[in-house]
Structures are given as C-alpha cells and as structure tokens.
Amino acid sequence: MSATVQKTDPAPAAGDERSARSFVDLVFRARELSIGGALVLLILCTWIANPGFLDDQGVEDLLLNSSILVLLAVGQSVVVITRNIDLSVGSVVGLTAFACGDFVSGTDHSAFVVVLLGIALGTACGLVSGLLVSFGKVPALVVTLGMLYVIQGLDYWWAGGEQINAANLPDDVLSLGTGDVLGIPYLPLITAAVLAGTAYYLRSYTGGRELYAIGSNPEAARLAGIPIRRRVLGAYAFSGAIAGFAGALWLARFGTVVADAANGWELTVVSAVVVGGVAITGGVGSVWGAALGAALLTTIGSALVVLKVSSFWQQAITGVLLLAAITTDRIVQRRTTSALRKRRRP
Amino acid sequence: MPTATVLTMTEVPVLAARGLSKSFGAVRALQDVSLTLHAGEAHALAGENGAGKSTLIKILAGVHRPDAGRLLLDDAPVSFHGPADARDAGIAVIYQEPTLFPDLSIAENIFMGRQPRRTLRRIDRASVHDATAALMRRLGVDLGPDRPARGLSIADQQIVEIAKALSFDARVLIMDEPTAALTGSETARLFAVVEALRAEGAAVLFISHRLEEVFRLCRRVTTLRDGRWIATDEVAALTEDDLVRRMVGRDLDELYPKQDAELGETALSVRRLTREGVFHDVSFDVRRGEIVALAGLVGAGRSEVVQAAFGVDTPDAGEVHVAGRPLRRGSPTAAMDAGVALVPEDRRQRGLVMEMSIERNIGLTGLGSLGSAGLVKRTLERGRAADWAAKLRLKYGRLTDDVGVLSGGNQQKVVLAKWLATEPSVLIVDEPTRGIDVGTKAEVHRLLSELAAGGLAVLMVSSDLPEVLGMADRVLVMHEGRLVAEIPRAEATEESVMTAATGRGAKEAAA
Lengths: 346, 511
Known about the structure:
The complex is a heterodimer.
Chain A: H1 14-49, H2 56-81, H3 89-104, H4 111-134, H5 140-159, H6 171-178, E1 180-181, E2 184-185, H7 186-204, H8 206-216, H9 218-223, H10 228-254, H11 265-275, H12 287-306, H13 312-344
Antiparallel strand pairs in A: 1-2
Helix pairs in contact in A: 1-12, 2-7, 2-8, 2-10, 2-11, 2-12, 3-4, 3-5, 3-10, 4-5, 4-10, 6-10, 7-8, 8-10, 11-12, 11-13, 12-13
Chain B: E1 15-24, E2 27-37, E3 42-46, H1 53-60, E4 68-73, E5 76-78, H2 83-88, E6 91-94, H3 106-111, H4 125-139, H5 154-167, E7 172-176, H6 184-199, E8 203-207, H7 211-217, E9 220-225, E10 228-234, H8 240-248, H9 252-255, E11 266-275, E12 279-287, E13 291-296, H10 302-310, E14 317-322, E15 325-326, H11 332-337, E16 340-343, H12 347-351, H13 358-363, E17 371-372, E18 375-376, H14 378-391, H15 408-420, E19 426-430, H16 438-453, E20 457-461, H17 465-471, E21 474-479, E22 482-488, H18 494-501, H19 504-510
Parallel strand pairs in B: 3-8, 3-9, 6-7, 7-8, 13-20, 13-21, 16-19, 19-20
Antiparallel strand pairs in B: 1-2, 1-4, 4-5, 9-10, 11-12, 11-14, 14-15, 17-18, 21-22
Helix pairs in contact in B: 4-5
C-alpha cells in the first residue's frame, strides 16, 4: 500500500477524499488480489492432491517454467498499456534462441555475450514493428502479425531443418539456465528483477506515466504534448528487447532449440496479460498483474500434468479465464464509473 | 467587475497572430486572420459555429500548423511544432470538450508531461499530490487529487482543465466556451479566478456564445465570419446588436426562414425513455408539420436521446411510438421501416462513407429499392442521386466523386439527401449545421422549413442557440440527462433556454 496522506490535505473534504481513494484503490487492486488468491488456491489444492507437487524439484520446476512467460508478459504489458499489441514476441523468441545458439555453438563465448546478442536482435525486431506502428500509422494487429510470419520465415530459412544441440553450447551459457543463488535458480531471479524495474519505471517515471496516458486517451495525449510516436516506438523496442532476452534464456534453459521454438506463445502471452488485468483497450493495469496472470496460466498447465488431466483442458481453461477476465473488466468499469459519478453528485 | 487597469496600445503584445490561413482539404477554415493579445487583457473571440474560432485556437495551441501567416510571442516570431511547444511558451488552452485521461488520477491529469521530479528523475508523487490539492483549494472545489477522472461531470472536468492551466502560471489563457456546461455559481467562481489571473498580467482569450459574458468580462472583441477576420472592436463602443450583425453578416430573418405550418397529428411520441446513467424519464411528442428543437449544453444527453429513439442505442426503459404504433427497441431498421430518419451529429464518422462516391452514399439507405433480388441497379442509383442533388442544390463535380472532396456544407447536404431519399415521416437531425458556412446553413434551414411545411415532423438537436430560436416551433431543454423545460416559440429567448439548460431554473424552483 502507498503512504497515507494525512500530512497533505486539511480540506474539509479530506474524509470523503480518502474514502474515494481507498475505494478506487480497492477496485484496482482487487484484480491482482483475486488472481493471486486463485494462484495460491490452485497450488494448495494440487499440493493436497499430490504432495509431490511442492517438493524441492516441484517448486524449482514451477519457478523455471513460469519465468520466461512472466518475462514476456512484462514486455507485452508495456505495449498493451499504450492500446497496442505485439503478436511477434513468440517468433522473436524462436529466432533469437536459434540465432544465439548458432552463434555460440562450438565456441566459448560467455553467457553475457549471448544475452547481449539476444537483446540486440530482439530490439531490432521490436524497432521495425514499432516504426511501422508509430510512424507508419499501420494498425498494430496487422504489423505485428506480419512480423510474426516474417520472423518465423527467417527463422525456418536460417535453421533449414537443423537444430541447436546442448552438447555444442559453452558451459557458461548452460549454467545460466541451471545455476542458482542460495537455491533459487537464476531465471526467476532475472525475471523478478526485470519485473520490479519495469513496475517502478511505469509508476515513477514520466515516460511510464505517459504510456498510460496514451492508452487512456490518445487524443488528449496529443493535446498534452506527449511524444506519442516516440513512446510507442519505445514500448515496442522494450517488448522486442524482452523477447530477445527471453530467447537467450530459452537457449540457456533448454539447450536444444529447434526452429519453431516458442511457436504460438504470443497468444498465451497476450492471454496472460489480459487475465492479469491489463485492459486490451489500454491505459489500465500493472505489470504485477500481468506477471500473476502468466504465473497462473503456467501453474494451471503444471497442475494438470501433476493431476494427470489431459492437456487439452489447459487450452480450454485458458480460454475460459480469458473470457471471464474480459467480461469482469467491462462490468467492473461500468460499475466504477457509476459509483464514482454518485460519489461526487449524490 | 471591470478593473481600471489602463493599457496603452503601443505596448508589445504577448501573443500576436498575423495573416493566418489554414485549409483542410477543400475547406478553407481560416483566411488571413490576425489577432493581438496584450498582457492583462481579456479578449473575446466572437463568431458563429464554423466561423474558424476553433481552428484559430488550435493554431495558437500548436495543434495545427498554419498554411500561411506567422505567430509572434513578445514580438519575436515563433513556430510551434506541437502542443508542448505552445505550453512551454506559456499558452494554456481549455477546450470546449475536456480532454482528460479517464483512467488516470486528477493529479496525474493536471501534471501529465511535466511532472515535478526528484532525485534520479523520478516523479515526485507527493508534490504532485500536494500541488493538486492546493490548486483545488484555490478553485474552491473538493475534488481529491487521487480520484480517477472517469465519471467526473462535465463541470468538474472543466475544473480539472482550469487547474491544469493554473498549474503552470499560463501567460496566455485561451478558453473555448468554458462556461457552457457550468452552473451559475461555478461560472462566477471561474470568472473570479480568470479575473485574478488577468489582473496578475495574463492575457485571456475568451470564446462564449453568451454575449452578456463577453460584455461583462472582455475589453476587446475580435469577430470572425466564414474563416475571415471581420473586425476587432473595443467592447465599450459596441452594442449586442452590433456584435451579432458582425457575426452573422446578414439579417436573422434571412438566415432562419421559418414558415408557419399547419400542425397535424402526432408523428413521433417518446414515452419515459431512460438509459441508466445517461438520461432519465424523457417524454415528448412531435407532430406533423412541427419543428421541435432539443436544446441543452454539451453532455446533457440530447444526442443520446435521439439515438435511443432511433434504435442506435437500446434504452433501458420507455417506449417510442411512430404514428401511434410502438417501435421495436434498439432496432434502427424497424425505425427506418416506420418512416424515421436520423441525420447524425458527426457526418464524417457516422453520416457518410468518406471514401465512397456521392451517388453511392445517397444510395446507401435505399439499396433494397434500387434494384431487385439483392442486386443494385446503377442507373436507378444514379437517377436517385442526381434527383436529390438537384433538389438540395448540391455543388459537386461529378456524382462519382468521393464525398470526401466536398466542402463541409455540401457533405451535410449529401447526408440529408441520403436520409430524405427514404421519404421519412419523421426526420431527426442532430446538429444539422455544425461547421458549415453561413450560406449553406441558410439553405439547410430553408429546406427544413419547407419539409415541415409539407407535413414532415422534424426533431432537431442543436447547440446553436440562434438556430434553435429561429427554427423551432417548440424548444425542449435538457439538463444533466433530464428534460427540464418545454418552451413554445413565442416564449423562447436566449435567456429562457439558457436558464433551463444550465439547471438554474430547476434549482430556483426547488429553493
């Protein structure tokens, strides 16, 4: 919770203001709380049904499995907040994972170089999408769908049926995927750091707030003198960089990479973001929520495996969650609007 | 309360515009317009809707770039590359329709793009909050800084916009009809704040359709008509009639050629129509041969009512009858079949398909009758278009030209033709003359008047007060989603309509 406001406002309406504020806070936090609650409940139930789910190996698997999706959800949120979308992330992960693998196979480059290469490649892809959306004024859905196929095609052509084998990768790169600090694997630590940094930027920096402003009302953003094109370009570059980073991590984690790695992930990522409360119409939501959404979707997948339920159900459940999330958003928005209206003029 | 500040006209103006011109496509919005604003001066900008006031303001605000002419700030040429440049130069603009971010807090709305920073360039949230609270106290309103802008009334949204302008101590404050949606006490408070700013040396450019405000608040007035500069006068040397003549440029009778018509039976009957949170319990009748105006402030819910009556939106409760028979809710097709036509407010977005030809646009409403078995006969379509183009005196090159190349007034005629071609018995027009030139405006008025005289029932939503008074047999006034007054033609005056529209009538009655 944020700090209280006692020191600031001695106006007679302070009490009313505080109640309005806590009410609004509650509404916006309700999403994160309920997703978090659902996640905890899911883990508990699965654990009761099969105690093996939460042994050391189980916890580590859970953390590792969700890391990359959570990371991608963070990048995607930043784009979705501006009332845009990036459907190319799945193929960017595939391309960078393969490219990084191709680059380091049989060499002894360090993990750092690989990560740097992944980020650079991803940023380049993000910049192309971003330029077309912001300066070319082409709808984001079409641009990034096009980029999805272009990058995928490039990836297949490059791979030509070959695959990257873990045996050829330098140990330093592989240790990025397997190593840990005090028992916690690197991957979730990296993801947590990116998540916290992005959340802080979105909350406390002018650029971050402007992303929300653009998504909330583009026309007002223009009149407020916000550099819309530059911000949207930046959001795509960030999403691309994150996807490239995720590609490098994918290589480190799995070692063996085929050309269609992460194929189709873009829709899972978008689902996670929306389930986590980032409005697809922009301006609303937090990366924390998106991260929880991603964690929930991954955990459902793992839980179904543990419970020996057919994996067909995973997609159906994802779909139901997505529909439920979008419907709740609409209802909650309508309710808050009318509640806020009443608050001012009873 | 006019203050005795003496200004010498030789002093350097804070902001001056010289010979500005601006065109949008084929429409010449501004031609060779000049304006000077001095420190400590309240200056009014007068002109009818479509006279070019908004375009001029948007150039001063850095939103549009002029095609010709230049801007001088403290006598030095400036060019604004965007709204941020104008803001940095100390120019604050309060638009007629507030432009807020609904999902962000009031404090964020006020400081967006120029938040105070602390170490590491982070936003200083505490001082944003405190500064907003201080601004709200200065304005005397109890809006919490952390409350989101979503759900604020139009008046409160205006307050936030004004707070935004105050927050950077604007040297030039431009207000586009700021009082249009405010109540009497809110207006008084606004004027007190503006007067204080002006006394501190800010230049104020003020647009209002309420002439008494112009005369009370301003020292000079610049009049625009059809995008051209007409005059800049000392307010003290002018009467209201003088100003109206400068704005209109012709006698009112000529602009509003209202014929007396025989009233027939009830054609449209709206009963207790309600859409939660938008409008409540709206009932009225329109008879054949009658022109009924629906007046009120922006955001009062007028357009929403006619859209619900026509079935574009589905009402939560209430009924609509056409010629005595109930209309199926939420179905524009049913309304059209019953003989109702709606000419929408926004012709570019809702009235026309801009990339389609004139003849195809006119043909859109009658595709079923322009051929058989689902095929459209081009010759029938063209015949109908040519017919209506002649009747409405449309100025066009060829009927196959895109509608987008026509001027605003002629586009409006195409929309009218498209709907009149359905031979309706009830015609609903929403802001029929917004943003079109005076000549075409008079033609549209003549047409509406003739149609009514021919037995058509006309329901007209209009924010243009002279149009309402000049055209309507009866004026219905809405305020905050409710029908608050019904005024017959003989009693309708600018004052009686505005009193009802601002809700003052209701409050006085309650007190």
